[in-house]
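Hi F.,

I've been meaning to write this up properly since the lab meeting, where we talked about keeping a consistent format for the predictions we share between groups. The idea is simple: the sequence comes first, exactly as it goes in, then the structure tokens exactly as they come out, then a line or two of notes. No screenshots and no reformatting. I'm using this chain as the first example so we have something concrete to point to.
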Amino acid sequence: MFALARQRVAPQLQASPVRETARLVCVSLALNVVVLMLFGSVRAIWPSITPDVGRLVREPAAYLKESYLAVTWWTIGLLGLATALAAVIGSIRTRHVAPHESASSAWWLMFEEKPGRRIHVGCAMEDGSFISGLLASFNTSIDETGDRDLVLAAPIRFRAGNTAAPTTLTDTSGVIISARRVISLFVTYQAHPAQERDASADQP
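Output, unedited:
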């Protein structure tokens, strides 16, 4: 859960299997320690509602036979809590700490430069056409390969390579663009409509 959540909010470096495994093991151990400390605190305050860990260690077979439901539910609960903590920690955005250029892609640097703003993206394609729209999502991989893609949302404007005037695709809600076909990206930061209304209301 930590790795999946982190992919949504941070540039993703393709680490070696050993390094990725070590990171996940460290995160898992840290979260397990936190969860066990919480369990210990609950047991110290309300021992009657928690499994008897001492007896579970001394007499595992006998204790599980008579208290298997409590042990099962507490195990599921603690595992669920650790999973939820992993998802929360992995999804935390550290926007105040900008990643170094070496640890992020050009897409990440441009699309995350102005948090809280709408991002309008124009794509010059290799066949001479041009597509523009509001950024909906993009691949966060740090590897700048042609296998990445980005998603633009309406209003979508399209100009074919052999025409001069763009056309607004009124029936199109979004478009997926492969990085392999893109030559240049033109990025514009725009205020959200709510921010524009607030700014207009503040003017005398």
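Notes:
Strands lie at 118-125, 130-138, 149-159, 167-168, 174-178, 182-190.
The domain at 105-200 is CATH 2.30.30.100 (SH3 type barrels.).

If this format works for you, I'll send the rest the same way.

G.
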